[in-house]
Amino acid sequence: MTVFAGQGDPRRSMDLLWGRPDAAPPDARTAARPGPRPGLSVEVIVDAAIAVADAEGMAALSMRAVGERLGRTAMALYTYVPGKAELVDLMYDRALAELPAAYEVSAGWRAALVAWAEDGWAFYLRHPWMLQVSQARPVLGPNEYGVLEALLGALAATGLDARGVRRAVATLSSVVRGAARTVAESRQAVRATGLTEAQWWHGRAGALPQVAPGFAERFPRVAGLDAEGAPDVPETAEADGGASYLEQAAREAFEGGLELVLDGIEAAIARTAARKG
């Protein structure tokens, strides 16, 4: 499923995202006065919502599910968060606070971008539901801007112009999210279908010799690529707790794709220097 951010009330969402003192409704502001500490807050609710999404995915997220996790009714949450649409915005931005605010460039821009990409890869595998939130409409929260600022800081060392930086940001983000999504979907497929990856491939690809005789002659480049460059993953890897074939292939695509992008940035730097020269 794909979730689009920014579907709730614009002003309420932005007030909550940016922590404006008047963001909370009157009941919540009253609860924040000196006295016994209330059991609920925006932060507590958002953390619980992230925990629900981490454990069960975005499809399981609802105000009721979050309330049950906190031992409250869904109605009790509406005092703090107007609804699910605003909650998704808050979850998305709050989760991004885990990522570094800056990257060290003393070892060069390339090392900084590798560190940024590795952090993103690990982050998305911790929170695969983040991959279901579309990038078409950003949340425009402080942590989302912080992540972008950190990436721009690493790219600043390249000397690329604004157009080149925008291209690099888009391509780097696509490489990281795309490879991580493959892993996330591979894991989800096992839970949804009850079949391991090895079982699925054995059932489908194992039938090809019978249903498609002459496959190698019909698709010689595909067959040649499989013969020469496909990862060799034992069928018992998943059963033994190892990464699946698809996960290993996704990791290889992540590392190889990142290297290609970094090489492209290096070539763009050289072209820019040549033009200036």
Describe this structure as you would to a colleague.
This protein has 277 residues and is mainly α. The chain folds into two domains: 10-96, Homeodomain-like (Arc Repressor Mutant, subunit A), CATH 1.10.10; 109-276, Tetracycline Repressor, domain 2 (Orthogonal Bundle). Helices cover 64% and strands 0% of the residues. It has helices spanning 10-17, 26-31, 42-56, 63-70, 74-77, 84-96, 109-126, 142-156, 162-193, 197-205, 208-211, 215-218, 220-229, 245-276. Helix 3 (42-56) packs across helix 4 (63-70), helix 7 runs antiparallel to helix 8 (142-156) and helix 9 runs antiparallel to helix 14. The longest helix is centred in the middle third of the chain and has 32 residues, at 162-193. The chain is flat, with a radius of gyration of 23 Å. Residues 26-37 have low confidence and may be disordered.
Summarize the structure.
64% of the residues lie in helices and 0% in strands.
Topology record:
Blueprint: H1 10-17, H2 26-31, H3 42-56, H4 63-70, H5 74-77, H6 84-96, H7 109-126, H8 142-156, H9 162-193, H10 197-205, H11 208-211, H12 215-218, H13 220-229, H14 245-276
Helix pairs in contact: 1-6, 3-4, 3-6, 6-8, 7-8, 7-9, 9-14
CATH superfamily of the largest domain: Tetracycline Repressor, domain 2
CATH structural fold name of the largest domain = Tetracycline Repressor, domain 2
CATH architectural grouping of the largest domain: Orthogonal Bundle
CATH class placement of the largest domain:
Mainly Alpha
Strand content: under 5%
Structural class: mainly alpha
Number of domains: 2
What can be said about the biggest beta sheet?
none
